[in-house]
Amino acid sequence: MQANKRFTQLLHYIVVLLLALVFFLPFAYTLYTSFVTMQDVNKLAGMPHWTIDNYKLFFTNDAYNVPKWFLNTVIMTGLVIIGSLIINPMAGFALAKLEFAGKRLIFWIVVATMMVPYQMILIPVYVNMAQIGWLNTFAALTVPFLYQCLYIFMMRQFFISVPNEFIEAARLDGLTKMGSFWRIVYPLAKSPLITMSILAFAGTWNSYLIPSTLANNPDQYVLVVGLNSVKDMFFENTPLIMAGVVLSTLPILIFFFLFQKQYVEGISSSGIKG
Amino acid sequence: MAAYENRNAMIDHSRSNRPSWLRSLADSDVAVGWLFTLPFLVLWVWWFLYPFAQSFLRSFQDVSFTALNDATFIGLQNYIQILNDPEFYQAVLHSLQLVVIAVPVQTLLGLLMAVLVNQKMKGQGIFRTVFFIPYITSQIAVTTVFMMLFKKGTFVTKFFTLFGFEDVTWFADTRYALLFVSILFIFQQCGFSMIVYLSGLQEIPRDLYEAGQMDGASKWAQFRYITLPSLKPVTFFVVSVATLLGFQIYDQIAAISRYGALGSPAGATSTVVTYFYQHGIRYMNIGYGSAAVVLFFFIIMFITFLQKKWLGDKE
């Protein structure tokens, strides 16, 4: 019995380690390859052969403008997060704590929209943006994405859990319903707001379909779109491309490690417990 | 809480001399309710409802991006043309193949990983992180890395020859390209499934297992008769999310197509999504592309309906 238990434990470890190896390998390969020369790709080269030239080249090549792409991505992601932090909690609060005609309809809209894939409206969005001259502008990449029905739903779920007494007490002290939202309830929502920002950050930073369609001028590329075009242009230069992968992925990884706990909680609570 | 305790400090400030009608407006459920949902509603009507309606409307039109004002109503012509296009059926077949391969594998893998890292052991947190990180990296970045790994002659393709695969560049080979896309999807999606399964596992009451142990149930029997049934709603969620995302796969295919038509090599990875993108946006055939989108929409609705019927909780 004891030996049997030992054996299962050992087996458990072996399986986890093997799986982890499979999942870790692409990352190790990427990091390693980004530091070697083209001759050393898919070979093990010692430390003395390592170089940071790939990173330098990725940033300074004349064929494209990585700093600009980086800036574009930061602006796009920043604007989307700021908008999300205002529009979604406001709507979520109204749906959770206020009684008004039309509320049920609006809630139904939120839930129904969540289920429609964005691709469903991509062609008309593209056409409408072309008509009003928004293609290749930040407006195209941000304005339609300032709200997300999933986040409104998440915020509503949170605000429902806030006791009504908080709002009532605030009103007794002279605040209006609107005032009690901004001064009392909104600060209470710190944790779901952080979760939402993280999800919005990852979703926006990593998005490809939308920016590659609405901003297809190389000057307006965001990092992910730019990375894809560098990959196509310099397909044989594996180390250069790997340096690009590392650089475009690093910000999201840093963000993840800073907020790991909220991230994981947000993922598991955004779906099933809602 | 801190904000609540601070409320006394704010009284004076909030009682500044605003006109009383403004004050009562700011305290009315109706006014604040509509004001607070207004930004959302405006953006929604402008950038969701309007284009959503256009997708349907355009699908009955013969209209090109270069001549938007020359749209003519042609009834069901676009649909008839699509349903007579063998490439469309090929695309539907590929979408289904992708989902049928990738969804069960990623679900099982997610469950396996969740069970493995749910048990106390050294490095538990590290393993969780390693399994989860692919999910938060961009699809383009992951696809790029895997393209380098699955080139002819690398240690990865050589390793797969052990299982009867040929040593070729996977994404450029019509036989392997779709499998390559499935692998990419599985690699990224199972971390999400793991997290959802983990939270499901932690909600199973401890005493269920204790009762099982008292009855002398083996570990396997406990898993089979306690864990699995308790995870049924979680499984439904994981499967439906993965199925929806599986039908929407685009980034990976765009990345491997490089300069070729979407769905390269030779249409081996064309899906319903690349089909409408190719026609609607690349060829600028708005009407035809919209009709394909509407069909895509109904396919997804139909699958969701089937899942609800087969897998959903029968209450």
From TrEMBL, chain A:
Residues of the ABC transmembrane type-1 domain: 70-259
Membrane topology type: Multi-pass membrane protein
Subcellular location: Cell membrane
Family annotation (PROSITE patterns): ABC_TM1
The entry's keywords: Cell membrane, Membrane, Transmembrane, Transmembrane helix, Transport
TM spans (from-to): 12-32, 69-93, 105-127, 133-153, 184-205, 240-259
InterPro entries xref list: MetI-like (IPR000515), MetI-like_sf (IPR035906)
Family membership noted in the UniProt record: Belongs to the binding-protein-dependent transport system permease family.
Protein name: Carbohydrate ABC transporter permease
Species of the source: Paenibacillus profundus
TrEMBL record, chain B:
Region forming the signal peptide: none
InterPro entries in UniProt: ABC_transporter_permease, MetI-like, MetI-like_sf
Gene3D superfamilies (alphabetical): MetI-like (1.10.3720.10)
Keyword Transcription regulation: no
Subcellular compartments: Cell membrane
Residue ranges occupied by any ABC transmembrane type-1 domain in the UniProt entry: 92-307
Record-linked PROSITE patterns: ABC_TM1
Membrane topology qualifier: Multi-pass membrane protein
Keywords: Cell membrane, Membrane, Transmembrane, Transmembrane helix, Transport
CDD domains the UniProt entry points to: TM_PBP2 (cd06261)
Spans through the membrane: 30-49, 96-117, 129-150, 176-198, 234-250, 256-277, 286-306
SUPFAM superfamilies: MetI-like
Family membership: Belongs to the binding-protein-dependent transport system permease family.
This protein's name: Sugar ABC transporter permease
Upper classification of the organism: Bacteria, Bacillati, Bacillota, Bacilli, Bacillales
